[in-house]
Amino acid sequence: MPYAISQLKVRNFKCFDSKSFYKFEFHKDRNPTILSGPNGFGKTTFFDAIELIFTKKITRLQTSIEDGRINLGKNILLNESDKDGDLILTLSDENDNYITVVAVIDHQIQKLFIEESIKYSVIDSRFDSDEDIDRFLGSQLQWKPSLQQFEKLRYSMDHFNVYYYVSQAESVHFLKNSITNRKDSMNVLLNTATIDGYIEYITNQLIGKSKSKKGVIINDAITLSNEIIETKADLLKSKIQGTNLNLQKVEYNQLLEYPIDVNPVGWDVETIDFDSESALNINSAILEIQALHSLATNSQDYDIYLHNQKVNVLINNSAIINDFIDFNQYITDSFLDKEKIRNLIFDWNKLIDIYNYSSFFRSKLEITSYKKGDLLKLKELDENLISSNIDGISDIITSINDANKTLSNRQNTLNDLDKARVKLHQLKNDFDKESSNCPFCNHKFENVEELEQSFLTLTNSLSAEKNEKSQEIQLLTQSLNTMLQKDLDAILAIVQSYDDLKIRELNALISKTKQFIENEKRVQDVETLFSYLRKSDSWIELRNEEKSIEIQRILQGSLKNYSNLEFSNDTEKYDFKSIINKFQKLLSISQPRLVDKEQVEKKIQYLQYKSSLSKSTELNALRNEIKNELLKVCKLRKIRDHLDDLQKLYQNSINDYKNQILKKLRVPLLIYTGKILQDYQNGLGVFVSKDEMRFVSNGDAKHDILNTFSSGQLSGFVLAFLFSMNKQYIMKSRDDIGFILVDDPVQTMDDINISSLIEVLRNDFSNKQIIISTHETDKENYILYKFLKYNLKGQSFNVKEKLYL
Description:
By secondary structure, the chain is of the alpha/beta class. The protein has a five-stranded antiparallel β-sheet. Strands 7-12-13-3-14 form a five-stranded parallel β-sheet, with helices on both faces. Strands 8-9 form a two-stranded antiparallel ribbon. Among the domains are: about 195-235 and about 620-655; about 305-335 and about 510-555, no CATH class; about 350-505, no CATH class. Helix 6 runs antiparallel to helix 24 (about 595-675) and helix 15 (about 410-430) runs antiparallel to helix 16 (about 450-465).
C-alpha cells in the first residue's frame, strides 16, 4: 500500500543545527503542501533529506570537484562537525499504519563521498517525543547500511529522481544522460536487471567483446590450449628429430663391480627409469660410461694430466710467480718460515715506531721538537735507547724555554744567528770537511785552519754580545747535549738512513707481507712452485723481470707428455674430477669390464635400446595430448559461438521489450507535455523517437529538445516526464511510494504553464501526496486557490515561521 510523508525531523543536517529537532509536519487530509519562505531556511534541505534517506545520495551534490580520498575535515552534510546528524522520517498509509525510518550520518566520515557515512534502522510505529528518539538512538544496535535491506518499502532506489522527485536545480539532470543511459533508467521497473547481469557476465567474464579479448574465461582457455598445442608440437618435433627409434633388442649386461655397501648405478640396472622427474638422462649416462672407460684405460695419463694442470696454473698465474720472487728467501726445508716473517714484521713495526717518536733526535735536539711522551714511548720500545733521566731532560728544556722568553729581540736574533752558524758549521764538517769556503757567505779562506779560526773569532764576538741570560741558555743547551749525546748516537744509528718516504715504503711492505702470510692459498702456491724450482738456480741472480721469464721457462720444461696422444681430447670432453668424486668407491676396486671396449659398447647400446622403447611410448603420449587439446579448442569455440548467440538473443529480447515500453510511454508523455506546455510554438507536446529515448519536438525531428528548449520549457518537460513515468509505472501492487516531490517548479515557468501544471496535478494526481516548494508568495497563494476551487484544501508550510519562530 502507498505511503505518504507524515513527518520529517532533522537535527545537525546542513542548515539545521544540533540544538533540537526541526520538524516538518504534514496533515493527512490536506493536499498539496507548499513549502514556502525565503531562500536559505531549509526548503531544498527538506528535499535533500528525503532523497538522501531513500537513495544514500543527493543528486545535486557535485562530488567530481574534489578527490574522494581527501579528508575535508568535516562531513559536508553536517552543520556541526563533531556530532552525528539525525534524519527521522515517519510515513503513514491510508489506514494510519506507520513506518519510521531512522538515518544517522556519521560525523567521523569526512570525505566527499557520503554513501559510507549513513546507517539505517526502521520501526513499524512512530515516536511520541524527541526524548523517545534520543533513547532509541542510544540503545538501537541493529543498524544496516541500506534502507532496502529491511525490505519494508518497495521503490526504485536507483531512479528516485525520475519516478518520484524533480529538483529545479537538477531539472535537466536526466536529459543530460546519454541516449543509452536514459533507456537504462527504466531497467529497474522493467525487471531486466537479472538479464542484464547475464549479458554482462557473458561479455565481461566468458567471451569478451571480441575473440582477441584477454582476461575472459573462454578466450583465455582457447589461448592457453593453443599455447599448449604449440609447445607440445615443438617438443614432439624435437624429440622425433633427436631420437633414433631403432628397436632391435639388446641383452642386458652389468658393467661395474660393486662393493657390498654400494647400490648399482642407475644406468647399470636392467630396469631403467626414463619417466619420472629424477629419471635417467641417457646422454649424461653415456658420457659417464665413456669417461669411466677413459679413466680405466688411461690411468697413468690422467696422473700426467693432473701434474700438467698444476704446472699450467703456475705458469699462467703471474701473481704466484711474483709472490715466489718476493718471499722465496723465507723458505726453509720446502716450507715457508712464517715465524721468521712475523718476527721481521715485528722488527719493521718497531723501527717505524722509533722513527715516528724520534723527531727530537732527528732534529739534532731542537727543543721545539721535544715531546716528553715521545721519549717515554722510545724507552718503552727499547730501554737501551733512552739512558738519560727523562724528567731531568724535561726540566732543562723547561728552563731553556723560560730563559728564551726573557731575551730581547736583538738577543733572540743573535741566538738564532749563532744557532744557524753552528748548524752550518756542523753540516760542513759532516759533508765537506776539506773545503776552505765559508758555508755561510762562501768567502774563500787560505786554508781550513784559517776558516776555523774565523768561525771561532766570530763565535766569541757573538758570545760577547749576549747577556747573562743568553749565557745561561748556552750553558743549559750544552748540558742538554752532553746528557743526550749517548742516546742521540744510539737512535741516529737506527734511523739516520730513513726519511718519511722510506717509512711509507716500509709500511707498504709490511701490509703486503701480512696479506701474503695470512692467505694460506698463496703460501701453499709459493711452496708448490718452490718444489718445481729447488733443483734449479738459474733464476736466482737475475733481475725480477728476468726471474719471472726464467721461472716460466723452467716450469714449461717440467710438463710431461701423454702416452696416449688422444687422451688430451678426453680431458676436454669429460669432467674427470666430478666422475672420480661420484664413483670414488667403485674406482677403488678392480673393474675388469670397464677396460673392455666391447663390454662398454654393449652397455651403451643397451641404454639406447631402452631409451628408444621409452621414447616411442612418450611420443605416442605427446600425440594423444595434442589431439585432446585440439578437440578441446574445437569445443571451446563452439561454446563461444553458442554464448555469443545467447548474448545476442538476450540483448535483442531486452531491446524489443524496452521498445514496447517506449510505445506505452509515448502517449502519456505527449499528453502531459501538451497539457503543460500550452504556449509551445512548434506544436503540441513532445515525442519519443522510435527505438530510442530521444525527445523531439515533432515526429520528423532528429535533434533532442535539450539543445532547443528554453529553461522554462525544459522544466515543464521534466515535470511532464516525471508525471508520465509515475502514472505509467508506479502501481500500488509493486510500489509503496505515494508521494510526488517537486522542488521550486515554477521558478522559470510562465503563468500559462504554471496554470497548466496545476491542472495536471489537480486532475491526474489527486490520489498522490504532492509536496511543492516555492519562495514566491503569489505563486503559493495561486496554487492553493486553484486546488481549493475543486474542494481540495492544501496547506502552506512556511519554513521560516514554522521552524525558526
